[in-house]
Amino acid sequence: MTIDSKLKAVIDRFVFPGALVECAEIKTGHINATYRLRFVGAEGAQREYVLQRINNYVFKKPDEVMQNVRLVTEHLSRALAARGVDPDNRVLRVVPTVDGGAMVDDGEGGFWRAYDFIRHAVTVDRVQSADQFRQIGAAFGDFQGMLSDFPIDRLYDTIPHFHDTRKRLSDFERSVKGDAAGRAASVPEEIEFIRSRGKAMCRIVEMLESGEIPLRVTHNDTKINNVMLDKATGEALCVIDLDTVMPGSALYDFGDAIRYGACTAAEDETDLSRVALDIDLFAAFAEGFISRTADRLTKAELENLPLGAMVMTYENALRFLADHLDGDIYFTDVDYPEHNLSRARCQMKLLTDMEAKRADMDGIVARLIERTK
After folding, report:
1. Which of 62, 85, 119 marks a domain boundary?
2. Shared domain check, 286 and 158
3. Cα 117 to the chain's mean position, in Å?
4. Is 336 within a domain?
5. Residue 38, pLDDT above cutoff 60
6. How far is CA 356 from CA 209, 255, 349, 364, in A?
7. Are residues 140 and 287 part of one domain?
8. C-alpha 332, offset from chain centre
9. Residue 124, Cβ neighbours under 10 Å: how many?
């Protein structure tokens, strides 16, 4: 096995028991460079780990990111143990460095961290069944539930204003005015779509500010591929990708999962007739999520879960459109000049369908809440 000497120097600064016998780069993901490591112990026992270089362009303060991750994973481990559940393979475990830290600075601007590898598990990029989405809903609900008593003031706000809709709108107007790519004149209907819904979509921000709903630990990237599923049974094992864990609203986590997982088409679908909210998938995820949070979230939070789906869909439409106007400087993985515009239009169509189905969503949530009493 050949391995780059600089990478080997990083590996040697973590507490990995045994001898390194395999190091393979994992090519999935767009944010962090990731490697899968395999070690063999003295008696032949094997253990695998994930080593990642943190993207410090996206995460300006990686030490704060890792402080959040360590605190949250330790809390989750204690919560599982209190239930009589072994946290091994159920919660990411941060591998310590030789000096007891959570991160290695390679001296060349790179920051690295390592986790135990979640065994016998897979992820999926598209929902394959309502039962599977119910499992994923339960996993994210468990994440919320077990962290409901976490002291929120201990977490860093690693990406300020991440889901601040009011700030996003202000940034959007700046993009419209600046028109850096000369595209604003070609999308007047899309710009008006964003503007016409701005006030209503700031409702979660207003509820947080007023104290109507509490600030909580939130994952902030609840795509379905951030839940590891048991290969054999399909059971949800572990929520991963905790880089964006920070203070926020439970409505954001619920909403982003619905936006991504309950849409009938891909995020960049250009045939908008194919884009809609699958109400059965909405119901399945909501059932899983509420079954694990009904006794932990407030009445106002539970009742406003459908609003979370709408706000997160709106926010992504806004961000995609703003980036199209800016010249594709944030969402840079574009295959053609209008790619981010296609993404924005897809989210707008999904939001329009959510608006039409709002009463259905509210009714489903109300029945699920009643069932838990």
Report:
1. 119
2. yes
3. 19
4. yes
5. yes
6. 28, 16, 11, 14
7. yes
8. 19
9. 15
252, 161: one domain:
yes
Is the same domain home to 57 and 157?
no
What CATH number should be reported for the domain holding residue 114? 3.30.200
**Quick one: CA torsion of 185, 191, 195, 198, rounded to 10 degrees?**
-150
Residue 296 DSSP code: T
In a shared domain, residues 66 and 209: no
Domain count, the chain: 2
- Tell me how far apart the alpha carbons of residues 230 and 87 are, in angstroms, rounded to a whole number: 15
- With tokens 């605190």, the residue in question is 71
Report the largest interatomic distance among the alpha carbons of the chain, rounded to a whole angstrom.
68
Q: How many CA atoms lie within 13 A of 315 on its CB side?
A: 25
Query: Do 107 and 83 belong to one domain?
Result: yes
Spatial separation of the C-alpha atoms in residues 68 and 62, rounded to whole Å:
10
Contact between residue 146 and residue 80 where contact means Cβ atoms under 8 Å apart? yes
Reduced to 3 states (helix: H, G, I; strand: E, B; else coil), residue 360 is helix
Contact between 258 and 309 (Cβ < 8 Å): yes
For residues 302 and 294, what is the distance between their CA atoms, to the nearest angstrom?
7
* CATH number of the domain that residue 190 is part of: 3.90.1200.10
**Whether residue 95 is found in the same domain as residue 146:** no
pTM for the whole structure: 0.93
- What percent of the chain has pLDDT above 70? 98
Q: 241 lies in which domain range?
A: 130-371
Q: Which of 62, 88, 119 lies at the terminal end of a domain, its last residue?
A: 119
Q: In whole angstroms, give the CA distance from residue 260 to residue 302.
A: 20
| Residues 365, 359: Cα–Cα separation, whole Å | 10
DSSP per-residue letters across 55-81: -TTT-S-HHHHHHHHHHHHHHHHHHHH
Identify whether residues 109 and 205 lie together within a single domain: no
Query: Per-residue pLDDT tens for 43-92?
Result: 788 999 999 998 877 788 899 999 999 999 999 999 999 999 999 999 99
The answer to whether the CB of 130 falls within 8 A of the CB of 241 is no
Residues 232-264: tens digit of each pLDDT = 999 999 999 999 999 999 999 999 999 999 999
The residues, ordered by sequence, that sit 6+ positions from 177 with a Cβ below 8 Å of its Cβ are none
